[in-house]
Amino acid sequence: MHHSSKSHSADRGIFIGFLVLMFWLPVPLGSNHAWAWAFMEVWIFGLSLVWLWGFLHGHVRLTSVFYKAKPILILLILWLIYIGFQCFPLPYLLVEFLSPEAAHLQTLVTTEGSHPATATLSVDSHATTVSLLKSISYVLLFVLTLLLVKRRKRLRWLAYTLVFSGLFQAVYGSLMTLSGMEYGFFHEKIYYTEVATGTFVNRNHLAGYLEMCLAVGIGLLIAQLGDSTNMTWRQHLRSVVAWLLSDKMRLRLYLVMMVIALVLTRSRMGNTAFFASMMVAGVIGLMLSRHATRSTVILLVSLIVIDILIVGAWFGIDKVAQRLEQTSFVSETRDEVDVHTLPYWQDYLLTGSGLGSFYTVFPRYRESDVDGFFDHAHNDYLEFGAETGIVGVLLVGSSVIFSLIVALLAQYRRRESLYRGVAFSAMMGIIAIMTHSFVDFNLQIPANAATFMVILAMAWIALFLPSHSKQRQRRSSAIGKSENKNEGLNEGF
Questions:
Q1: Largest CA distance in the chain
Q2: Deepest in the core among 102, 108, 186, 261, taking most CB within 10 A?
Q3: From the centroid of its chain, how far is CA 130?
Q4: What φ, ψ does residue 125 adopt, rounded to 5°?
Q5: Selection from 15, 30, 25 nearest residue 144 by Cα
Q6: Is 359 exposed, middle or buried (0-12, 13-18, 19+ CB in 10 A)?
Q7: Bridge partners, residue 119, by sequence
């Protein structure tokens, strides 16, 4: 028994550290400074090592969801191997065959123009090594999510942690904007004044983060609406009134505050991606939900639409609309950046210039119509394509699409409202970020990329986490086995 309690406390400690990390990630400027992402990496590697130590000593074990997620784990491991391949010295002739442009650039730095004995596919192997470490931490975070979120209550804890993190960013960002104090993370804002940025530097990255947190919150709301089939209109009305007076209204208020902050970012694509993803996910959810009461989903969507109208009237969604109307190809520099990135991608078509090397390579392709320094393309698809080539885009794209399909399957197959709600969250979050990525670089910001990886993992948990009844059966039928005693202890956390 002592061994079981020790096992449970070790596992619980890792999970608490994981939740604290998820709340922390957006706080230090979206973890988009070297010290902040290094801290993130050390934290994730530390949690992973503690879990591995527990596994080797029999305190924790692999979960059923982990086994079921093997296809995407293989894809992610192949991605890491591929990025490692980009920054590993290879025979020059092989690099010349795979990426002539990368080979040519590396001859320029040698004496007398002779080619070196070895070269790397990445034209900036240091930047690619830095990006490889980030990528390893993201994949480990994905794996930790599968290993630690092994009960319904833990899934709910994770979802609420993301909601509270989004709420903190929303309240802080809104207060700074509405009060005129204009502080970011312990410093006075220089850029993006009079718009909400939270503790991020860029309003679009706060918008991207809020899109994901709102998706999780809306999924939780759907999960709490419950299953009410064959009800009369009077019973429906009674249940709606009861719901409005219940504790679930707090979650509604949290969502309202996040929508207010999203509007206050004045991010055109942030707002567009949120509203579009909510409507698309809502329609798909209605089509796929065999078990959910359609009227409850319609109720949810209608309430959110009412929110938008009220929030918009008070907090200026008309200013977002005005920014959209005033958008033109003449005034937008990011369009020229995207246009100049296309020939860059063509030169590194198969294997890319190296993950993280955009800021090194892009100046060679920039023309006079683009001023200033650009460390990222304002389009995640183009940047990933240019840096990792067709091979990289296929590996990353397959992982995201695979997870989206899994979220759709979970909505169709699962009977329990929590799993359907989380599947909705994953689907909406993926659609929102994929939409926003056409005009921004949210997936280059560590806090947003890490949160996105957790949302991908939540899709797999929503489909494959055993139902509550199965978990109880498993525990009751395994009383004599110490391993399963371990999982049965203190089901609360």
A1: 87
A2: 261
A3: 20
A4: -65, -30
A5: 15
A6: middle
A7: 90
Alpha helical stretches, state H, 289-328 = 294-315, 317-326
- Which H/E stretch holds residue 119? strand 118-119
In whole angstroms, what separates CA 372 from the centre of its chain?
Answer: 29
Region for residue 265 given its phi and psi (left: phi exceeds 0; alpha: psi -120 to 50; beta: otherwise): alpha
CA distances from 100 to 61, 82, 115 (A): 47, 18, 12
Give the integer Cα–Cα distance in Å for 275 and 74.
33
Distance CA(85)–CA(458), nearest Å, equals 29
H or E stretch covering 91: strand 90-91
358, HSE (Cβ side, Cα atoms, 13 Å)? 28
Beta strand pairing status for 118-119 and 90-91?
antiparallel
Where do the domains of the chain lie? 2-229+244-332+367-488
Alpha helices in 25-124 (DSSP H): 34-56, 64-68, 70-87, 92-98, 100-108
Q: Phi-psi region for residue 209, left (φ > 0), alpha (ψ -120 to 50) or beta?
A: alpha
Residue 176 CA, chain-centre distance (Å), reads 25
Burial class (CB in 10 A: 0-12, 13-18, 19+), 49: exposed
Distances in whole angstroms, Cα of residue 317 to Cα of each of 27, 268, 313, 322: 26, 10, 7, 9
Q: How far apart (Å, rounded) are the C-alpha atoms in residues 182 and 248?
A: 32
Q: Taking the CB of residue 349, how many other CB atoms lie within 10 A of it?
A: 14
The CA distance from 264 to 140, in Å, is 34
Q: What is the dihedral of CA 178, 180, 181, 187, to 10 degrees?
A: 100
Q: DSSP class of residue 188?
A: B
Torsion angle in degrees (nearest 10) through CA of 407, 412, 415, 416: 30
Reading the chain (493 residues) residue by residue, the pLDDT tens digits are 455 555 567 789 999 999 999 999 999 999 999 999 999 999 999 999 999 999 999 899 999 999 999 999 999 999 999 999 999 999 999 999 999 999 888 877 665 557 788 899 999 999 999 999 999 999 999 999 999 999 999 999 999 999 999 999 999 999 998 887 877 766 777 777 788 999 999 999 999 999 999 999 999 988 887 555 555 667 667 766 776 667 678 898 899 899 889 988 888 888 889 988 988 998 888 888 765 555 566 666 666 676 667 666 666 566 655 655 555 444 445 667 788 888 999 999 999 999 999 999 998 887 766 666 677 888 999 999 999 999 999 999 999 999 999 999 999 999 898 999 999 999 999 999 999 999 899 999 999 999 999 999 999 999 999 986 666 555 555 444 444 444 443 445 6
Residue given tokens 């002739």 in the structure block: 93
> What pTM did the predictor assign?
0.89
DSSP-assigned beta bridge partners for residue 188: 183
